[in-house]
Amino acid sequence: MREIGQDLQTAKERVAGLIGVPVLIKINSGRGKSELRRGEVVATFPAVFTVALDTGEQKTFSYADVHTRACILLRA
Question: What architecture (CATH level 2) is domain 8-75?
């Protein structure tokens, strides 16, 4: 479920402000499953953004994931 009063542009601006900042990422996988990872936002694009995790892998998320809280970014 999305946050009241938030739109995709707001989500893009929030993510753009986290480029290069260490973050904790909570990824909701559905049915009560979630992962907590450490990483850093390395790039933003018009529809998606890329996060480099501490494990060395890179994951890509859409701004809709942030908008619907399927992916939550917290400053570490």
Answer: Roll (2.30)
Q: Residues near 63 by Cβ (< 8 Å), separated by ≥ 6?
A: 8, 11, 12, 15, 47, 48, 49
What DSSP character marks residue 17? T
* pTM given for the model: 0.87
> Any bridge partners for residue 33, and if so which?
30
pLDDT tens track of the chain, all 76 residues? 555 667 889 889 999 999 999 999 999 988 989 999 999 999 999 999 999 999 999 999 999 999 888 999 999 8
Domain limits of the chain? 8-75
